[in-house]
Amino acid sequence: MYKLWATILKDVRILLRDKPGLLFMFGMPILLVLVITTIQNSTFDLVSKNKVPLLLCNRDTGAASRQLIQAIDKIDMFRLINLPKDETGKDITGRMHSKDALLAMIIPPDFSTKIDAKARKIAGKALNTFGLEGEKGAAGEDSVEPIDLYYHPILQQSFRSSVQGALYSALQLVESRQILRTLYFSINEKQLPDSLEKDLLHNNLSINEIPVLLDNSRPLPNASQHNIPAWTVFAMFFIVLSLSGSIVREKLNGSFIRLKTLPTHYILVLLSKQVTYLGVTLIQAAIIFAIGVWIFPYMGLPALNLPSDISGLFFVSLLCGWCAVSYAICIGVFARTQEQANAFGAVSIVILAAIGGLMVPSFAMPGSFRTLIKISPLHWCLEAYYGLFLEGGKLKDVLMNIIPLVIIAVTLQLATLWGLRQKKLI
What pLDDT shows up at residue 139? Predict the structure, then answer.
């Protein structure tokens, strides 16, 4: 026991001298958590709270265009910026290049006329179907000139699809209102009452969103609940830069050979490094979680809600840290130089994070990646954390994620022992 304690103290002193390694292990993940959470929270606010600026050039003077503008405004997604009707497309694109807005829409001059003609034709077809005399529109009368929607290239396809869906809803409302009015007037020879129009057009079924939580008493997940567990796992595995480099240095400076002349065993040295760096990973998790709980609210970010099962959170963090330490030691044993260990370690962690769901959600990945996801230890770490943070589960609820994590860690430990024997270091 004394030998183990002395070796741990030695590793702690070496770790404290490694200033760049400490910066990577603590400074970088904290910065990542702050930046990524702030960006994602701003994205949520853009969709749910803030309004998107929309340049609007209405070249039509009829009622349908005014109804369309009112419908767009009621969507509560856009902040309309009205432009003069004589504004050219070149002027509008110039405004967009100067970032006045990232979206612009031009309503054509004959929009209301074409909407009325289309409504009369569709109403006439409906009346003929009912066996009544309906108006027959001329061919091509229902051809409405498309509305031009300009967008800045920096907008992603997913956001543009949301914008198009909202605008299509507004257009559909205008067309349906005009068709109903025309049909009602053709049958009753009087205007459609406002109360009846409201009942017909705005009688939509509501959608009740119900999150699937194992603990329904927990608050709904927010940006902090998604990002902090993910980047905590990333921080744990990034100890590979310090730990693997430490092992490589000891191999190159002859420490392994000197240990063979002493009444001890290199397994004791590996155990010491595992205990030391496992403590580092737990400190990383504690610091990042503490920032989410106490610092985020002062920065205007949603606070991190810790799981109700704190002992389960500690156990999952312990296993994640042990897997990260096992991975780093395995790389250190097989790497021949410190440059190899650092380069391969950093690149491999980024790749495993990418395919493990830390950067792109696993459900959004193509089917060909489903098998690769399962070999990434970061994926199982993240799923175990998500089971506690997002679903409100307890330790027993994430056992199916813990078991693969233990298998991967044990496999890495066995590979490390095999590598040491192959290199005749033990």
Answer: 46
**Residue 196 structure tokens:** 């009846």
Residues 409, 323 contacting (CB under 8 angstroms): yes
Nearest to 49 by CA among 69, 79, 77, 81: 77
As a whole-number percent, the residues of the chain with pLDDT over 90 amount to 19
Q: Is the pLDDT of residue 210 over 60?
A: yes
Greater pLDDT, 268 or 206: 268
Closest to 242 (Cα-Cα) out of 419, 14, 420? 14
> In whole angstroms, what is the distance from residue 311 CA to residue 384 CA?
13
pLDDT single digits (tens) 334-350: 988 888 888 899 899 98
State how far the Cα of 125 lies from the Cα of 188, in Å rounded to an integer. Answer: 17
CA distance 125 to 120: 9
Residue 389 tokens read as 């943070």
Q: CB-based contacts of 310: which residues, under 8 Å, 6+ apart?
A: none
DSSP state of 78: E
Judge whether residue 155 has pLDDT over 90: no
Nearest to 5 by CA among 254, 264, 227, 322: 264
Side-chain half-sphere CA neighbours of 342 within 13 A: 10
Nearest-angstrom CA–CA distance, 176 and 171: 9
Instruction: Assign 330 a pLDDT band (cuts: 50, 70, 90).
Output: very high
- Strands (E) located in 52-188: 52-58, 78-83, 103-107, 148-151
Q: Are 81 and 52 in contact (CB under 8 A)?
A: no
Tokens linked to 293: 């709980």
- Residue 204 is given by DSSP the state P
Residues 6+ apart with CB under 8 A from 248: 332, 335, 336, 337, 338, 340, 341
Exposure of 137 in the CB half-sphere (CA atoms within 13 A): 21
Q: Backbone phi, then psi, for 50, in 5-degree steps?
A: -75, 155
CA distance readout (Å), 309 to 171, 225, 312: 50, 15, 5
- pTM as predicted: 0.72
Residue type, 68: L
**Sign of the C-alpha dihedral computed for residues 16, 19, 25 and 27 taken in this order:** positive
Domains defined along the chain, listed by start: 2-42+224-422 (no CATH), 51-201 (3.40.1710)
Inter-residue contact 150 to 103 (CB < 8 Å):
yes
Q: Is the pLDDT of residue 318 over 90?
A: yes
